[in-house]
Amino acid sequence: MSRSRRKTPIVGMTTCESEKADKATWHRKFRHAARMDIEGSQFISFRQYGSTWCMGKDGKQYLTDASTRFPEYLRK
C-alpha cells in the first residue's frame, strides 16, 4: 500500500485530523434535549445544539495542481 494515492485531490482545510469528538458532543446534547422533551410538544431542531462552524474543520478545498506541488496531500 505504499503507492496508494487519492484519486480526487479534495482535502480538508484544517490541521484537525477528525471531527469525531465534536460530532459526539453535538449528538449527545441533541439526544439529551430529545429525552427531556417528554410530551413531544415542541419541534427540536438538530441545528439548535451545534454548528458546523464550531467544529474543527473548515470545509474542503480542491487542489488543482496537487500532483506536482502537493504530493503529500494525495497520500491515503
UniProtKB/TrEMBL annotation:
The protein here is known as: Uncharacterized protein
Traced from the root, the source organism's taxonomic lineage reads: Bacteria, Pseudomonadati, Pseudomonadota, Gammaproteobacteria, Pseudomonadales
